[in-house]
Amino acid sequence: MKLNKVFGLGLILSAVLLTGCAGKTYDRSACSNQIDAAWKELNFAEAEGFAGTVSYSKALALLTAAKTQQQFERFASCKQKAKRARFYIAESRAGR
Predict the structure, then answer these.
(1) Which PROSITE patterns match (predicted)?
(2) Is the pLDDT reported for residue 5 higher than 60?
(3) Could you say which DSSP state residue 39 is in?
């Protein structure tokens, strides 16, 4: 009887852990895609004026932080930082 309880508890714990891994895989690819897109956009961006240069610098700092988060497997944070970097890249192009 005790063995069945331990087995059942182990099965439930395994299911919970595997669910967490599935979310990490999604965020892993989303993080990578966002970083790749942001670097491509940054390569083509030309900052307009001082405000554009500030936005460009913010984007570069956010991309560096996103890459660091990716290395530490903090994929949700990585994805968020890369999205914010893409926003600042667009602002840089607009001179804001």
Answers:
(1) PROKAR_LIPOPROTEIN
(2) no
(3) H
Q: How many CA atoms lie within 13 A of 67 on its CB side?
A: 10
User: What phi and psi values does residue 46 have, to the nearest 5 degrees?
Assistant: -125, 120
Question: Which alpha helices (H) appear in the chain, and where do they start and end?
Answer: 2-44, 49-71, 75-94
User: For residue 68, is pLDDT > 60?
Assistant: yes
CA angle at residue 23 from 15 to 33, to 5 degrees? 155
Give the orientation angle of helix 2-44 with respect to helix 49-71, to 10 degrees.
150
- Mean residue pLDDT across the chain: 80
Q: How far apart are CA 61 and CA 18, in angstroms?
A: 33
CA distances from 35 to 32, 46, 65 (A): 5, 18, 11
